Amino acid sequence: MANGLFDCTGKVTLVTGGNGGIGLGFARGVAKMGGDIAIWARNEGKNAEAKAELLAAGAGRVETYQVDVVSEEAIIQGYADLLADFGRVDCVFANSGRASKSRSVLTLDSAEWHDLLAVNLHGAFFTLREGAKAMVKRAEVGEPGGSLVYCGSLSMFHGIAGINNYAASKGGMGAVIRGMAAELGQYGIRANTIAPGYIKTGIGQGDIEMSEEMKVRLAQVDAHFSAKTPIHRPGRPEDFEGMGAYLTSDASSYHSGDTIVIDGGSLIYPPYAF
User: Fold this and answer.
1) Do the beta carbons of residue 177 and residue 192 sit within 8 Å?
2) Separation between Cα atoms, residue 228 and residue 224, nearest integer Å
3) Where is the signal peptide (predicted)?
4) What pTM was computed for the model?
5) Domain locations in the chain as residue ranges
């Protein structure tokens, strides 16, 4: 039975870094609407847990792959395996990435600069490029459509001291997404960026080895961001479920070239507001 406006039945969504956090939240939204899901992530144990959760949520089929998106060759092989298993891909969420280890532009060395860009910029680009190739090939035989999605951040808009390589990767891919939207629209393929605000991904929660000091610090971080967000709470992975269903389904078939901010309103909230 179809799930109505956000029906994902018969659609295949690839989520990189999809075994936890925002990626798993996005995938769970697709699963609840009956879609099929492929997860690329390196932790085999977490992949198995995510697969079980997504199947329980309603996914038609879930397959997991250990793909390192730093490697262009691994990405190309990953698509070969995915297409051999599913026969198609309808949505790609390039979500894999890491935080910057830098705290100052003055000490940001070349190793850290390039290492982060290898994942957040280059890996994301190659992931979306190869997904676009598969979608264009399908369009050329009479079935246009597809959705390319990148996980950006509020650093695309804000000047944030120290994490210049992180901001460069997010801003750079934002420009790439707009270029893809302009070029690939002729095939019915749309391309969009999701820009999350402060999201609690569950890291450290339930960890009995986490010190009391760390628990207090995390609570202080939550309180800090909640106070500066019009919706007074941190974001959660489940806040991305609806976006996963929307961007995978045909409901978003005319939505392209956008940066969709999911941040509880913090982007529009000035620092002096009270």
Assistant:
1) yes
2) 7
3) none
4) 0.94
5) 7-199+237-264, 203-234
Place of tokens 């039945």: 9
- Token pair 């919706």 is at which residue? 231
- Which band of pLDDT confidence, cut at 50, 70 and 90, is reported for residue 247? very high
- Convert the pLDDT of each residue in 168-217 to its tens digit: 999 999 999 999 999 999 999 999 999 999 999 865 444 446 678 878 88
Classify domain 7-199+237-264 at the CATH superfamily level: NAD(P)-binding Rossmann-like Domain (3.40.50.720)
Task: State pLDDT tens for residues 36-78.
Answer: 999 999 999 999 999 999 999 999 999 999 999 999 999 999 9
